[in-house]
Amino acid sequence: MKLTDVQKLINERLLTSSKVLVEDEAKKIFKLFDIPIVEEKRETDVNRILEACQKTGFPVVIKGIGANILHKTESGLVRVGLNTEDQVCDAVREMKKFAEDDIEAFLIQPVVSGKREFVAGMFKDSQFGPVIVFGLGGILTEALKDIVFKIAPLNDADMDDMFEQLSSKKLLNEFRGEKAVNKEAVKKILKGLSDIALTYPNIREIDINPLIIQPDGSPLAVDGLIVLEEIKEEKYKAYDIDLSVLGSCYYPKSIAFIGASATPGKWGHMLLTNTLSRDYKGKVFLVNPKGGKITGRHVYKSVTQIEEDVELAVVTIPANKVIDLIPDLKKKHVKGMLLITSGFREVGEEGAKLEKELVKVAHDAGVLIFGPNTMGVCNPHIDFYCCAAHAYPLPGSTALVCQSGNMGTQLLAFAEQQDIGIRAFSGSGNEAMVTIEDYMEAFEIDDLTRTVVLYIESVKDGSRFFKSAARVSRKKPVVVLKGGRTSRGERAAASHTGAMASDTKVFDAACRQAGIIQADQPMELLDLSAVFSSLPLPKGNRVAIMTLGGGWGVITTDLCAEHGLEVPKLSRNIIERLNRILPPFWSHGNPVDIVGEDDPDIPKICLEELLKWDGCDAVIHLGIHGKRVLVNNMIESVLRTDPDIDRKAVQVFKDAILQFEEDYTRYVIKLTQKYEKPVLGVSLLTDEISRTLYRLEGYEHKSVFFPSPERAVKALWGMCQYNDWRKSHANQ
């Protein structure tokens, strides 16, 4: 068979009801793509079957094949290790009895020895396209589900990661007298599957199960199946977006609030007053057919009455009236429309039709639509807060996009509370024109953005999302929290490989492959944004732990181990240096327990000694910061019970503790900058003035403190994960 013959065969089989290429047909295609296959003969007559067995040499394998037979083993149509002609005849007779109407022919194969069986394959995902599968095979495939996914096409780092992710990866090493698996040969198979899928779009599923590893470590495909489908052309995005226009909408020199309202609580009042309450320097115009005054400002009865051009229109009028607004926006050269209004696709078919018509008219007029059904945008760098959240985080480097208004409100409020700087925020709404991928690509080329943080509930174009994220991740971290992560059930599939996948597993695989760091909870999004925007990346995964008390050190060590972070033993040299600082009964190991000494210089000296140590890549320090909360509570108890206490002395003591903590946070910043290693703190206790980030003018890095060890470890793990991905994809 030649490559040109394959499409002909596919076209012929697509005309049939089964749309399946049976085992020997599939293997002919495998062979064209350098996938090693077992030698076999196809026969229908019993006498010819016996002749083939003699030429193959006993023992043999006999299989019944047919277009309607997808799983031969489950159907009782595979016999392994037949040693005589009588056994062959009995096997053929029994198989015909089971499925005579479906059997088209019999395959005769030699018995392939090998104690390890894997599965390799491909299935077509509706969002991400061809997905390559590798994992534990044979009869254990669906029972154990030790399977790894990657989006095609594959590179070398992707395939190495597939091997690393397997729970049963020890089977890739030497095993019970058999040599280690030839990984390069397996990579050729996985690459071949990727190439087949990309060459022939009509292929929906490919199954190689089992892929037997022979005693010399070489893989051999002894079974195969290809399932076909008609190609469905779907265009996810009707119009391309000018990213420079998208970026400029975060810096509007003039805004028209269309649908401005004098009624508190209405969107037309809430967004207006939120914007005006800050120090936004642009011009603000109010539009309402009733005219008059709102918030003491003149109200225009239409956009066209405004004497000058407008850059951004904030629209809160009813959905059915928005489309009639477009010609007026075009006359005023409006670049973007922040469409707060709901009543479009989210309400059903009629709303979806209205949304589609609106997008076309707006695109033709050169107006970019944010939303509809969005909670707004903000850009702290120009004090521009035009959103439902009355939260005002500091200017920073974290770009935040949310597909949920409530989630956006929560995250902005938390960012403000914890002093986490925000580059810009957008509630993406229905994404009728500007999609999550557009936001990601706009922030990719934005110099002020260091981290892109996304809350996602759905992705319209998985392939574009994957490619965009993989490209952005090479420059800056992309952090994602996916809503609706519970699987919607296993997909209907003809092959073992296709049956293994769920939407959740494929999305998770795409994120890992694209270098996206996934968060499990909302607060983790900003924990990760805090460390990525404030600390240097670790060069490895070795962690030194400094603690004020042994218990926290033990817990943190366990958490590090659970997340694949190494807590190395201290070198003799660093133990000797710490011996000069700490009392004789200190732990003499990692974690370093500084045993509650009162000398305020001890934590600073110990922290620097650990950062000097070339045996660690990051430091987690616990319990030094936040002691003031404990002390303050103790002092309050004393003041309530001891009338003789010197209150001035107490205040001096309180001030000294607070001063120590301020000095300590500044010292941590200086050490972080000096040694270019991430330092993550865990506060002993927190109160209303506790924050995640502490700044020092003139320094790029910041002090980072979390309220618990697990949040600190999880954030550091995210940094290590991202750094590992960047290193593995540096030359890809």
Q: What keyword list fits this structure?
A:
732 residues; alpha/beta; Dna Ligase, domain 1; D-amino Acid Aminotransferase, Chain A, domain 1; seven-stranded antiparallel β-sheet; seven-stranded mixed β-sheet; 20% strand
Q: How is the main sheet built? A: 7 strands, antiparallel
First CA to last CA: what distance? 33 Å
Rg for CA atoms? 32 Å
**Helix proportion range:** 25-40%
Task: Report mean pLDDT, rounded to a whole number.
Answer: 92
Sequence stretches where pLDDT stays below 50 over 5 or more residues: none
Short summary:
With 732 residues, the chain is an alpha/beta fold. It is built from 24 helices and 31 strands.
Characterization of the model:
- This protein has 732 residues and is α/β, with parallel strands linked by helices.
- It has five domains: 108 residues, ATP-grasp fold, A domain (Dna Ligase, domain 1), CATH 3.30.1490.20; 113 residues, D-amino Acid Aminotransferase, Chain A, domain 1 (2-Layer Sandwich), CATH 3.30.470.20; 132 residues, Rossmann fold; 161 residues, 3-Layer(aba) Sandwich (Rossmann fold); 194 residues, Rossmann fold (3-Layer(aba) Sandwich).
- It is built from 24 helices and 31 strands.
- The strands form five sheets. Strands 1, 6, 7, 8, 9, 10 and 11 form a seven-stranded antiparallel sheet that branches. A seven-stranded mixed sheet has the order 14-15-13-12-16-17-18, sandwiched between helices.
- A hairpin with an 8-residue loop joins strand 30 and strand 31.
- Helix 19 runs parallel beside helix 24 and helix 21 packs parallel to helix 23.
- It is flat and about 105 Å long.
